[in-house]
Design goal:
alpha/beta, 23% strand
Length: 304
């Protein structure tokens, strides 16, 4: 395996609305879909659809949602051998409302995702030791994620952390990973102030790097991204697309970043590739389902 993921697996129930409801308001929507989600699953699928071999460590419940997650993961060519079936917890779910312009709000019930532990990491040790890149998020217990990070880094691999759902992180966590990829609000929670412009995004990236992470990438949506790392402090522009659903765009970004780094691209080119993945994902509905294929990304970049 060349990329490992330790993370969450959800089934998403996504409602597409004419507009998002206000508190206490009931609205009719246009349609709904049920599909695979969870930041771990989304990132694993994103990297797999680009052609990387992926080892995925996580948990699902022994329930109907778990069966649906298994079918979906298998359909994308992912190996289920490191996905534990938890008979004491339910499969995670997310309830998602998407507005007309692609904006969304999401409620997540973690279920079995919060039961991922050191035994799951130990079961996946051999795969982790072989992996060049590890993708992490904050939808499973941090103890398990940090244990996996230590295994991968001990063998010279790169660890990428998406600090979502947003929370403040101890500096020891930042020092345990190589690249951190917050959006504006996640960076704001960690720093105490939220970047509003590309220039402020670069300032935020520099401040995060100063806390111990090797490289910080602040994602600014349609305003691009800012990166601060060894040999690079730069603002990269966003790709122009017409979004219909921004759910899991950050996960497609991270999956693309892991794939590009695993393929040997330098950090700037890898970020451009990742940004194309994230942008393309917003032009489709769904979470894992919206992640682009390698052919789609290459065609998009050839026109950009």
């Amino acid at each position: 395996m060349t990329i490992a993921v330790v993370g969450s697996i959800n089934m998403d129930v996504t409602a597409y609305m004419y507009r998002l409801p206000k508190p206490g308001e009931t609205l009719h929507g246009k349609e709904y879909i049920v599909g695979l989600g969870g930041k771990g699953a989304n990132q694993a699928v994103a990297a797999r659809k680009l052609g990387s071999d992926v080892a995925f460590i996580g948990r699902i419940g022994a329930d109907d949602f778990g069966k649906g997650a298994e079918r979906a993961l298998t359909s994308y060519g992912l190996d289920l051998s490191l996905i534990a079936k938890d008979h004491d917890g339910a499969t995670g779910i997310a309830i998602i409302n998407v507005g007309e312009g692609g904006e969304n709000y999401i409620s997540v019930i973690a279920g079995s995702n919060f039961r991922v532990d050191l035994s799951d990491v130990e079961k996946g040790r051999a795969a982790l030791e072989q992996s060049r890149v590890l993708l992490l998020q904050l939808e499973v217990p941090l103890e398990a994620s940090l244990a996996a990070a230590a295994i991968v880094r001990a063998r010279g691999g790169t660890v990428i952390l998406d600090p979502a759902p947003a929370k403040d992180l101890d500096p020891t966590v930042l020092k345990a990973v190589d690249i951190i990829t917050p959006n504006e609000s996640e960076a704001g929670l960690m720093l105490g102030w939220q970047p509003q412009s590309p220039e402020e995004g670069l300032r935020a990236a520099k401040e995060l790097r100063a806390r111990g992470v090797k490289a910080a990438v602040v994602k600014l949506g349609g305003k691009g991204l800012a990166v601060a790392g060894e040999g690079i402090e730069k603002i990269l522009p966003a790709f122009k697309v017409t979004p219909i659903d921004t759910v899991a765009a950050g996960d497609s970004f991270n999956g693309g970043l892991a794939h590009a780094l695993e393929q040997g691209q330098g950090i700037e080119m890898a970020l451009r590739y990742a940004a194309a993945c994230g942008a393309l994902s917003t032009t489709k509905k769904g979470a894992s389902a919206a992640a682009p294929t390698k052919a789609e990304v290459e065609a998009f970049l050839s026109r950009a």
